[in-house]
Specification:
The complex is a heterodimer. By secondary structure, chain A is of the alpha+beta class. Chain A has 14 helices and 22 strands. Chain B is mostly beta strands. Chain B contains one helix and eleven strands. The chains are: A alpha+beta, B mainly beta.
Chain lengths: 446, 160
């Protein structure tokens, strides 16, 4: 096991990793930008190194600064968290060149699965249903029209180098397809430095279901069941839960096994999430693989009793997974609400500022993952997440009930947060009966 | 095809003008094996010009890395009016260019903005840190081999 690692991230995930490290007897070195200099969680790190000014490009996204810090702190490994450099294959390569273990997959599998077209082809090889679409990148407008008519409108234009909901456009006919292609290519070029596009059939009113997997260097792969992340606004998840309320056992098993086949086919190591869309007939279609630990990982931890960050550390240090699939059970229902510093009344625009009152909810089955505290400041330079509120109960009704109570207890003042929005969603009858799709939040809240 | 020194210098000058005109802070161009990285002064902190990796022996510190949680400010008292030289990068501080050389500066040394005051080594690259101010060194806050973080105080200077 490692004796000392560096966390190339900030905020709640940095704190989450520090906690896992300390329980495993690993020293945790944190890095921070000047904007985070007063963050309280830094005191929990064994060492904290200032790496730059506020701008992410000069701090958390700066490979030289992070590697420098890793060298002077003499660490054996780096955990990239999520976001920032977590899915940057070049960063993983640099770590390897510098003799520092990267807690995540190899650069090769990151690159393979980061290319959404290659990932689709891989899923097909793994005998997993993919959304009908183009075979590879579309060459030109004429080809796009041909494919779109073959698979049937509406279709969605996606960037091969994109992902995470970015660079996508839905079109309903030849005219709008023609109009959209040029713009989509330019956007992809600008955002991802790669203008390659592909088409998929647009599945209307889908559910978003993803499977948590881990894999070790010996080739063992395991799943920790699924999460339903259908509650999204503009492709940003807001509420997640496990298990998926509409999946029967047989379909769940098929879904999880499909996820394992994808990961095996990619020779993947460490933690990953395989994302699927579920249509109205509960048929699932492969969408993409996220080659990192995800924000909503606590939901899985609560229903399975497993510590996913510890698994990442163990796998990266060379340990094999000593669990068997049949030993992993899921019990009860877990729901997570993302509490962001955003104003729902103003189109969810970010609300940075100082938190003068911060009172956490509590009680049986309530978990709060947060780096913030009273007197701390939500800075404008980074994402707006303040906390993750997770609830775990025996039944879904109980979980919803407890989550509503916990949201009502949670006081964050004076900044605006997504607490009222989460409350509204949880109180809606469609959420209770889980008659939802990925468009639900925008229809409800705008 | 190798360029002569003059062409190279001319190109560097052109790149500098390009940066100023577009208010760029950092510009890196890689061309085969050669690479150039130019940085303009930040609002706070000195400019650094990164040298390509020096084939000369790398100085390996014998001094263990120190805790760098806080900037190493000594007992404050009247530092009013003193200018500060802070590290613009994370790395290892060296007071001289090699173990056998004299330190670049010491207490009492007069500096001007372009005076190299120390080296901070990051990822095997020896970055020369410039004073960015005029005056006399009154305090040296780091020791050779010490780990420094971004913004860490290196020297205090009494302005002219």
């Amino acid at each position: 096991m490692f004796s000392r690692i560096l966390i190339a991230n900030r905020g709640e995930i940095a704190l989450r990793i520090i906690r896992a490290c300390h329980e495993l007897g690993i020293e945790a070195v944190a890095v921070y930008s000047q904007a985070d200099a007063d963050a309280e969680y830094l005191r929990l790190a064994d060492e904290a190194i200032c790496i730059g000014p506020a701008r992410p490009a000069e701090s958390y996204l700066s490979i030289p600064r992070i590697i420098s810090a890793a060298e002077i702190a003499d660490v054996e490994a780096i955990h990239p968290g999520y976001g920032f450099l977590a899915e940057n294959a070049h960063f993983a390569e640099v770590c390897a060149e510098c003799g520092i273990a990267f807690i995540g997959p190899t650069p090769e599998s990151m690159q393979l699965l980061g290319d959404k077209i290659a990932a689709r082809e891989l899923a097909e090889r793994a005998r997993v249903f993919i959304i009908p679409g183009s075979e590879g990148a579309i060459e030109d407008e004429a080809e796009a029209i041909k494919i779109a008519n073959k698979i049937g409108y509406p279709v969605i234009i996606k960037a091969a180098a994109g992902g995470g909901g970015r660079g996508m456009r839905v079109v309903h006919n030849d005219i709008t397809l023609r109009a959209a292609i040029g713009g989509a290519r330019a956007e992809a070029e600008a955002a991802f430095k790669n203008g390659a596009l592909y088409l998929e059939k647009f599945i209307s009113e889908p559910r978003h279901v993803e499977v948590q997997v881990i894999a070790d260097k010996a080739g063992n792969v395991l799943h920790f069941y699924e999460r339903d992340c259908t509650i999204q606004r503009r492709h940003q998840k807001l509420i997640e839960e496990s298990p998926c309320p509409v999946l029967e056992e047989k379909r769940r098993e098929e879904l999880c096994k499909a996820a394992l086949r994808v990961v095996k086919e990619a020779n993947y190591v460490n933690a990953a999430t395989v994302e699927f869309l579920l249509d109205k007939e509960n048929r699932f279609y492969f969408m993409e693989v996220n080659t990192r630990i995800q924000v909503e990982h606590p939901v899985t931890e609560m229903v399975t009793g497993q510590d996913l960050i510890k698994w990442q550390l163990k796998i990266a240090s060379g340990q094999t997974i000593d669990l068997r699939q049949k030993d992993i059970k899921h019990t009860g229902v877990a729901i997570e609400c993302r509490i962001n510093a955003e104003d729902p009344a103003k189109d969810f625009s970010p609300c940075p500022g100082r938190i003068t009152k911060f009172i956490l909810p509590g009680g049986i089955g309530v978990r709060v993952d947060t780096h913030q505290c009273q007197g701390c400041t939500v800075s404008p330079y980074y994402d707006s997440m303040i906390a993750k509120l997770i609830v775990h109960k025996k039944t879904r009704d109980q979980a919803i009930n407890t989550m509503k109570r916990a949201l009502a207890e949670f006081r964050i003042e004076p900044i605006k947060t997504t607490i009222p929005a989460c409350m509204e969603i949880l109180s809606h009858s469609d959420y209770a009966s889980s008659r939802i799709d990925t468009g639900f939040v925008e229809r409800l809240l705008g | 095809m190798s360029e002569n020194k003059e062409t190279k210098l001319q190109r560097v000058k052109e790149l500098v003008e390009l940066m100023k005109a577009n208010d760029l802070v950092e510009l890196e161009i890689a061309d085969g094996d050669s690479k150039i990285l130019l940085k303009r002064p930040q609002p706070v902190g000195p400019t650094i010009t990164q040298l390509s990796p020096v084939p000369a022996p790398v100085i390996t510190p014998a001094v263990p890395v120190e805790q760098t949680v806080q900037a190493q400010t000594p007992a404050e008292q009247q530092d009013v009016g003193l200018a500060e030289i802070k590290s613009p990068i994370v790395g290892t501080f060296y007071s001289a260019s090699s173990p056998d050389s004299q330190p670049y500066v010491d207490i009492g040394t007069r500096v001007s903005p372009d005076t190299v005051v120390c080296i901070v080594e990051a990822m095997k690259v020896m970055n020369e840190i410039k004073a960015e101010t005029s005056g006399t060194i009154v305090e040296v806050l780091c020791e050779t081999g010490e780990a420094v973080e971004y913004g860490q105080l290196l020297f205090k200077v009494k302005p002219d």
